[in-house]
Recover the amino acids of this structure.
């Protein structure tokens, strides 16, 4: 079995565990998960940005086009209030964005003009709000040792590679936390307005309820 096949299997297994948890505990998060992205949508992003999505990222989008509906990642115009988002269900309040948003954030990712490699392809993937100024990227740089790794970025700061070896590894960590693995950094999973929300149990937001963590399936 190839490395790509292993990553795909790990991604699908981890997301299956996450989705089962959402179905049982976070009905609004589960109900608002988007439909899969079409192959034409995936190829359009790859052609537009001149990159190839890692196999595990592609596999996730073939299950859901993001962790919430597109409206969760839209800016409010002030004319009509947007519904409370459900898509930011990952630790640190991050969400995986629909494919159609990736190009805008890709163009705004800070670069170091002196040292930047013109072949570098850091694709913003997970964001904490619609502006996309803070979040995580996947390395899509062709033939690089870091291809497929997850790194972090922030406004006015250069991207930092190497946070997780792959999206598959990241989602596996998230699934493990939902099913009881302790963590002092990402907080504790709970429910807020029917959605998965990670919080410090010692200082949770109003209305947040912890979920008793089940045994790992």
């Amino acid at each position: 079995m190839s490395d790509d096949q292993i990553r795909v299997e790990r991604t699908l297994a981890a997301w299956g565990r996450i989705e089962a948890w959402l179905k049982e505990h976070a009905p609004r998060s589960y109900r608002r998960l988007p439909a899969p992205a079409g192959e034409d949508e995936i190829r359009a992003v790859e052609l537009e940005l001149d990159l190839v999505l890692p196999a595990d990222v592609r596999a996730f989008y073939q299950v859901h086009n993001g962790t919430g509906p597109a409206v969760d990642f839209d800016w409010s115009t002030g004319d009509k209030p947007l519904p409370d988002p459900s898509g930011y269900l990952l630790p640190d309040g991050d969400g995986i964005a629909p494919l159609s948003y990736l190009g805008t954030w890709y163009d705004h990712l800070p670069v170091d003009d002196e040292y930047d490699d013109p072949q570098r392809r850091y694709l913003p993937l997970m964001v904490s709000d619609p502006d996309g100024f803070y979040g995580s990227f996947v390395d899509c740089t062709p033939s690089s040792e870091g291809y497929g790794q997850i790194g972090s970025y922030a406004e006015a700061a250069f991207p930092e590679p190497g946070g997780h070896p792959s999206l598959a590894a990241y989602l596996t960590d998230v699934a493990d936390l939902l099913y009881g693995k302790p963590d002092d950094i990402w907080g504790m999973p709970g429910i807020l307005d029917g959605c998965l929300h990670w919080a410090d149990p010692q200082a949770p937001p109003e209305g947040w309820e912890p979920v008793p963590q089940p045994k790992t399936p």
